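[job 4471] stage=fold_predict status=RUNNING
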Amino acid sequence: MELEAMKQLAAAIAIGAGAVGPGVGVGLIGKGAMEAMGRNPEAASKIQTNMILAIVFTEAIAIYALVIALIIRFV
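[job 4471] inference complete, writing structure tokens
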């Protein structure tokens, strides 16, 4: 029973810690993109494309953390 509780705690810590970084990263990416679009509205479509690509890569880190948490939990 103690091993199961430790696995649950480890999975919770893995996904919790793994979600903080991407959350902050997406916020900073959005902040930078909004500032850039405010300064140069003509380049909004190019900035938005790059912003979405950067967000996708940032969210991939959260998906890796989820996979690790699931592996810890069920293996």
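[job 4471] summary: Helices lie at 2-39, 44-74.
[job 4471] exit 0
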